[in-house]
């Protein structure tokens, strides 16, 4: 019985050592500090927090299908993708992204941006301004 208990303790010790050695290098999901719509530039302004070895991560949006809710209301989800998602998570970084909505036809819309499960933010995007109302 004593040898069996010692074996369990040794396995537990090895598992804890592995967790402590790996965790500083494990990737943490990106998260949002804020997200807003800029009507002057027709862009989403997204402040994202992430971890890595450098501040030059590149991000993109992967859009899902536009859902028409009726009464000229739409919803759409976009995944914020970190192109360097495998970068070792050694330092904290914050980056402001400007994502153009020039080609977005799903308007007006409630846009839900997400990264990893549990990290999301919602932004209201109005109907596209008509050329008659633009300066």
Can you describe what's shown?
The chain has 135 residues and is of the alpha+beta class. Helices cover 16% and strands 44% of the residues. The chain contains one helix and eight strands, in the order αββββββββ. The strands form two sheets. Strands 3, 4, 5, 7 and 8 form a five-stranded mixed β-sheet that branches.
Describe the secondary-structure layout.
Blueprint: H1 2-22, E1 31-38, E2 43-52, E3 59-63, E4 67-70, E5 73-82, E6 91-100, E7 109-114, E8 120-125
Parallel strand pairs: 5-7
Antiparallel strand pairs: 1-2, 2-6, 3-5, 4-5, 7-8
Radius of gyration, whole Å: 22 Å
Please count the helical segments: 1
By DSSP, the count of extended strands is 8
Shape: elongated
Distance between the amino and carboxyl termini: 84 Å
How much helical structure, as a percent, in the residues?
10-25%
Please provide the ordered H/E string of secondary-structure elements.
Answer: HEEEEEEEE
Instruction: List low-pLDDT spans.
Output: 9-28
CATH architecture: Sandwich
The overall pLDDT, averaged over residues, is 80
Q: Could you name the CATH homologous superfamily?
A: NigD-like, C-terminal beta sandwich domain
Strand content: 35-45%
- CATH topology title: Immunoglobulin-like
